[in-house]
Each structure stands twice: as structure tokens, then as C-alpha cells.
Here is the input.
Amino acid sequence: MTIAQVIGGYTLGGADLLRRAMGKKKPEEMAQQREIFTRGATERGLATDKAAVLFDQMEKFAGYGFNKSHSAAYALVAYQTAYLKAHHPAAFMAANMSAVMDDTDKVQVLHDDAQKNGLAVDPPDINVSTYRFVPVDAKRIRYGLGGVKGTGAGAIANIVQAREAAGKFTGLADFCRRVDRRIVNRRAMEALIKAGAFDSLDTNRASLLASLGNAIDVAEKSEQFATQVSLFGGSDAAGSDTFTLTVAAMWSERERLLNEKQSLGFYLSGHPFNAYRDELRRFARTSLANIVPQFEPVMLAGVIYGVQVRNSRRGRMAILTLDDGTARIEVVVYGELFQEKRAVIQEDQVVVVRGKVFPDEFSGGLRITADQIMDLAEVRSAHARLLRLSINGQADSTRLKGILAQYAGGKCSVAIRYSNAQGACDIKLPESCRVKVSAPLLDTLAQWLDEKNVEVVY
Here is the structure.
């Protein structure tokens, strides 16, 4: 472009048109540009033949110079970013996560990469976090409040301003009273609770969420009566309402993670498959990270992270993204199986898939074609052989009979595990005690006997 300006007499706009013409490589446009360049160059004292040679060289350079210059520029950027990632990893990853914080898929990719490189990502915290992701030290990053869905820059700015003006928040009611609730609305508060941003105040997110409406009401009453004075000159007693959190059972790990995904776009503090990993590994032994293409069908287990429904020549089909915490892989579900299992094919559903594994030439990874899909209830019903209970020290036959009677009529036998200093054995209950293994049954037994004392044998 400089040659076109200085020698050919082009304006800046005209030089840019020449650049575009060379990039498109259209003969008619290049012929016009050659004439313009040659005329301008000869007017500035350059011989016509030399002007033609110069234009030929420029045209030849356009065939590879653009790609070559981009390669050089990207190589420099790659070197610079690699240096920053190697020598300042926390600051580098925090800056990258802040740059894409509106795209949760990209944030998750960077979060996973940070963990693989030995960095810890602390959860969002209303008493510590700012809008952006920030490095705490060389190995830790604090999650930015701006990465929580449903908040917004204005709401986060108001929270940070209130915190800086009067110190850290001491509780839910204190938070509701000090922030501007026209900016930090209820939806934003709910999102922050689900994301774990209030955990430094109280770890029971279910209780915080159940108490939010009451906390807002108390804050509004406090403002309403703040400027009112009684007839006797004292503060109105209505403005001194006390606030206590509503009692609520803590969310299970699965509930906590599903709410995190709703607010953050992904599971931050764990993975929902972890709760079922030990049980399902007895049935689907291969993790997604270790599968390889093979002719024989394989059994795989994981959580459905995403679902894409498409039309194909074989009818409606679905592409599931299956995730078990070690890797993600696509599972293709065709025709009749898709129609049969539409109720099961839902995001965050734990499933077992039987199918064939093929290399995916398009993505360079693997893809599975499913011929069977089962949810957890179907797996337990079809393949549970024995329900083993350890009740040492908690032997209550009446209570056990009452629980088993509610789920009678199944094919799964029940055995009591007895152990002492000399050894251990299973005492199998009569066939009349066989049960249908289900989540409610296992949850009831786990609450009584503890989860580690309840085992499903496949």
C-alpha cells in the first residue's frame, strides 16, 4: 500500500482498493489497477517498463505475502502469550477468563485448562470478588462476579461499592439492606446464592435461597421506618425487626451442582457424575477418557451435558454430549431409539449407553453410535443383583422391614453384611424381601445407615 501511495500516486482509500483487488485476484479489476498504477508511476518519473515490472512483483507478492505476514504476526502473539502463561500463569488465565466471561463455554474451557496446569480457581464471593477474574497469588484465581449469569456490570459495581463503603457483608439481611435493590434485584441475588457467592456467610445455599424473600422484606421495612420518629421522639420499633435464616435441608451434591450450572454455565465445585461413579463403574467399567475405536459394542456411563436434535435422512436424531468428568464425547442416537428414549435424553441426566465407537474424521476425535440408552433407574432395575447393607450397631429389624416393604416386588435380593474382628459374611434375606432398587430406596437407606453402608452389586 505504501508503494501504491508513494510511487503510484494512490490515495489511502485507493491503495486499500488495490489491496482488495489483489486479494480477490479478479483479472478485470487487476487490469484496471495496473493501468491506474502505471499512469501514476510514469507521471512521477518512473519508466513505463519499470512500472510494469514493479506491479508484476506486487501482484506476485499478493499470492503469498498476506498469509506469510499473518503467520509472522500470529507467531509473535503465540510466543508472547506462551511466555505469559509459563511465567505468570494466574494473571494470564485470569485475564483470558475475564475477556470471555460472557461466553460460559469458553470460560469453562479456560477453567479446565487452568486446573490442568495446577491452578486453583476459587469460587465467587460477595465479600472478596470483583467484577473480573483476578489472580490471588501465583497459583490461585478468584472467580469474577461478572461471570455469574443474571447479574450484570451495574449490579456488581453496586455490590463492590457497598462493600468498600462500609466493610464486608455480615449476613443475607445485611447484604439486602446495603445494596441498591433496584439494581441488584432478586434474580441477581438468587443467581449469586446458587453460584456459591454467599458461602462465606453461610454454606447452606438452600436455606439462603428460602430466606431471600424475608430478607428483602426486612430490608424494605428497615428503610421505610429509618426516617420515621415516634410521637415520643424515639425510633419506631417496627424498624428493628430481627432476621433469622429459614431452616432448610442442605442441597445434595447433585442439586448444588445443577444450580451452579444454571448460574455459571458449568459445574464449578465438582461433577454430578461423582455421586454415581463407584456404582456405575461396576457396570460400565471404561471411562470416556480411555475409550478407543472397536468393533464390539461398549458400555459407557456419564452425564448428558448437552443435546442437539437434528433432522436426517433416517428421521429425527439427537447428538448427545456425554461427560463423566474425565472427558466429553459425542453420542449419536438415531430414529426409533431417539423416539423411545426422548424422556431420558435430557440435559444433566445420568445415563448408561451401549454403542459402537468410531473415529470421527471431521473432529479428529471419537463418536459413538448408540443402540441402547438407560437411565439410572433402568440400570438398577435390569442389572442390580444384590443390595448389600451394613447395619452393625444399628440393627433395627422392624425399621428395615418397613423400608423394604415399601419397595417390594422387585428382582434384587437383599443381604446383610456382618463383620467382626475374625471376618465378614453376607446374610441373605428370604426371597420375599426382594426389592425394586430405586433412588428413593437408596436415599432412605443412606440417611439411616450412611451412604458407605449401602452397596448395589451388579
